[in-house]
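Sample entry (225 residues):
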Amino acid sequence: MRLITADDALPAVERVPAPWTLHGSGWILLLELPGEVRCDPRHLPEELRGLPLGGPSLVMFVDYADSPAGPYRELLYIPGRFRFPDGRRAWSVTRIYVSSWDSVVNGRLNWGIPKDRADFAVASTGRGERIRVTVDERPVASLELERRGPAWPVHSGLVPAAFRRVVQHHGGRRFELAPGARGRVGPARLASAGSDGELFPDLGAGQVRMALHVPRFRLRFPTAS
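Predicted structure, serialized as tokens:
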């Protein structure tokens, strides 16, 4: 897997160490993708290749209204839940774009999240949002999502930390954490989607198992071990 901007080419930004508390809104897609997409080496770091992989793949668009690094937008991909040699399972973000360099740099340093910077165009459609992500004017992905019903309160405290475990590998280091969140979540629908395939996994190759709208949330990203 190759990052668009290597670590040694990143701009200098203010260091904002973990933990972080963030607020915002977003959308979540649970996808069933074929094995050749989930295991595509273009979107999978070497440390994860060949590991057993279960659960759904996830795509999320998040609009952070505030964070310790300022507001920013984000599009991320999680291939599924990996089983590591010690028998434990964890999610891992393997492809992610954000709209600010502050988020890129601090995300890599704090948690080993392989963030790259992109431009985001987001338009309201009345019932939802139309999202377009580009890098140097090259299309990365486009999504149109719609709300389908009311949102209900949820709290990650009801989910065991083992199921929230995230493991990242970056710069020769392993990062482990279990984020926590609370907010409101409601049903949604994916009206359309497209992606580059090289810069982001081929969304058209799979099926949507569930779509969710998150009108507001509070997210806690702890210090990684």
